[in-house]
Fold this protein.
Amino acid sequence: MRQWYTILCAGILIVTVTSASAQPQQHFEAGMEVSSFNYEEPNFMEEDGVLWGIFGNYEVLLRENSPHGSFKDLFHNGNGFNRFELDARILWGQVDYTSTMTGSLDEIDDWLFEIRGLTGYDFPVFEDQIITFFLGIGYRYLNDDSSGLRTTTNAAGYERESNYLYLPIGLKYFAPLQEQWTFEARGEFDIFLTGEQQSHLGDAVAGLGTVTNDQDSGWGARASVRLERKGERVDLFVEPYFRYWEIDDSNTAVVASGPGFLIVGLEPANESWEAGSRFGIRF
């Protein structure tokens, strides 16, 4: 995973340096976020709960692109990738666990962190309406910690850490509405680059180590709509969203379980989704 962390940091640095060097228009956003969260390993287990948190966004507009008469205008007349965005969020809460094999367990602590760097190309269409093509790099971390807890069948819990690195690509539509209101819709496909799952089995059974599984196949998607009211100094907005991930079986990994004993571990195929909303200010 280290090489992918380097790519992530380099991508975000390019966005930041490019933005700073062009003396652009800058906007900041901040607010709170609430999400219904669900994680499932089909035919084995499921977790669901509510996560709360905060987010921040830094957006840069280098210049406004001109209308396009033909494909040759894509990178002529000053046109080009003209929009950059750095977005981060952190959420926390508790989830309930149910399993067909190991019973149930309530109030497991979860927290999630995500950071993304995006660059976009604005296509002016009609009057005052813009379609933006964007792509970038993203990193998502999820911590699920049931260590020290036991299920209804007396199965011991343990801490799990999930890392995803992915490439978001999508479209955004922006249009002004009546008076001070604007509307925005966004659709995105997330290309899964690599993942790493760490299961700290020693939390459940003394003497066991940590299993580290690499994940190399999966995909994600997300969609959102946004209503924003312009103010004299600060704009207010609400943004409902839906986010989805589907990850295939990981590779197998071996962990020592005592003298002469080994355990082979695998992170099963899984699906997760969030349905929530952001409430924030823009200035």
Q: What stands out?
A: Helices lie at 2-21.
